[in-house]
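Appendix B. Chain record.
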Amino acid sequence: MHMHMRVRVHHWVIWWVCLGVVCGVVALVNIFMRDLPRSQERVVLLIGALNWLVGGVFCYGFGGIKVEELPGPHHHMEASAASTRANPSPRISG
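Structure tokens predicted for this chain:
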């Protein structure tokens, strides 16, 4: 049996992810291309981790991403069969 899912993502979530990726690339370039002390490397990595953590909490807390289960064709057939049993067609007598 296949489950059909729909994922709805708010536009601000996409911007947050893009910001996180860009900042992550900048942080990695600074770590690898410069001779940063170990303490500065840790600060840069901590800020990056906090960005992703805060982004995840915001997405969860404000419903930024919603996963919905869509009824499949099998579910639709069961629902239509149940509705015809509950509401039989009227008989015309003449």
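Further analysis of this model is presented in Appendix C.
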